[in-house]
Design a protein that fits this description.
Layout: E1 32-37, H1 41-56, E2 60-62, E3 70-75, H2 80-96, E4 101-106, H3 107-111, H4 113-117, E5 124-125, H5 131-139, H6 147-150, E6 199-200, E7 203-204, E8 209-215, H7 226-230, E9 234-235, H8 238-250, E10 255-260, H9 274-283, E11 289-292, H10 302-310, E12 317-319, H11 327-332, H12 339-352, E13 357-364, H13 371-383, E14 388-393, H14 411-434, E15 440-448, E16 452-457, E17 462-466, H15 467-472, E18 483-492, E19 497-500
Helix pairs in contact: 10-12
Bound molecules: iron/sulfur cluster.
Length: 501
Amino acid sequence: MSQQPIEHFAESRSETASASPLNDSTDKPALRVALKTYGCRSNYADTVDLQAALVEQGAVPCGLDSEVDVVVINTCTVTDEADREALRLVRKIRKKSPDTRVILTGCMAEIRTEELQDNDAIEHVIGPGRKAELVEAITGVAPHTPAAEEADSPQSSEPALVTLGSSDGHRRVKSALPDRRSISLQGTISQEIQGPGSSIGDVRTRARYHLRVQEGCENSCTFCIIPFSRGRLSSREVSDVLNDIEFLTGQGYREIVLTGTHLGGYGEDSSSSLHALLERIVAAEPRARFRLSSIDPNDLRAETVDLIAKSDIFCEHLHICVQAFSDRILKRMNRRYRMNEVQELLAYVHQRIPGVCIGSDLITGFPGEHRQEVDQGIETFLRLPISYLHVFPYSERAGTAATRLGDEVPVPERKRRAARWRAVAERKRDQFFEERIGSTLECIVERADSQFFFGTTREYVSVKIDREAVRRAGRDVPPLGGLLQAQAIAFDPSDRKLLCQ
Ligand code: SF4
């Protein structure tokens, strides 16, 4: 996983501020619950899971922009700034509507439990993976849950904080991490989950489904605290994953994103592997295409690249988290690979999967990073077959080893370096998009306006498809989440999308 406080997923579009329906079992107005999610796809998958569980309890998930009884904030704690952002929202909600109950979940809730429990503005603080407890705290009713849930109370509520990360590629001491064999890893998806674009309460589901297949991480990247919030590696049973896939395709999902805290670690706790899981998925011949959320270079085996290359169900897109383009910085980050391995892997992926889009993450301004390492890094990046880059200026996370490495890069300089990287990366991304002009692309439709269908191709290219051209060609108009073949005709620098027809 990367240091990605990526965009805050807009939870919902409450089409209509519908009056709260009566809760069938109590004749009381149904509880209206807004969910705000920060952070990564794992957090987003948890939110969708929680929304379905709330509907099962008769509550109505809705947007932060509507009248609500409870606000649940699914927090990220990948940086101190992420913490500050969530706490700013708590204050804002309390100021705007003092009677609204505020409940915190997610990684910050796990790492700073006691301190947050002393905060009067927050009613409950419940870490990730404790869905039953969370649903009960929100609705006041304990959900019916399989026995496993009862066992879900945190094994070690206050994980012993050992030295976070050492610069020799060591992995964490297992016992130092909480055990999170959370409920969301057991059992299958709630029947409340309908097809793409359907509603869960006032919340509209998305075009693609983020399917969590594992939880936890036992690596020790020096900038990261996530293993302490997400706990030890724990993988879902292959049979449960396959059941979920069958359910989701039955509901009309045509793209499924396999996700987890450390996706590449799938199966390490159960003598299986990500490769074995992908082989089983291929053998099941599902009616959907698949994307891997993100994977570390050392976790992506050549045979898995071959499998992805051979099978049509996998999108020609891999997000491979490199984080730095210098061996010295990779060592300071305690990442488990070096640049020669990265270059070899990316060359192999590029050779084996024609037209593949390789994306990556980069933290710039990491403690100790020299100016010339930025220059050399950019030269290396320009030579590598990477099509886009998520760039993050290093941001401290209290309690991580990186905060004790010394040799800090001043914040303004970090921002300058990030701006420089982003400019270079944007040009490469645009070039990758332009190289698609003339080719026919398979697009998943994510939304539409009066003129265009907007979507994403197998190669992770953002497109806008001319509706009039589709109509003139007499082609079927796909539903949200449906797949549409379209020919790329131009690159529009104004919104940096490929125009298709
Ligand atoms: S410690 Fe784990 S979750 Fe954190 S960045 Fe490293 S691999 Fe990702």
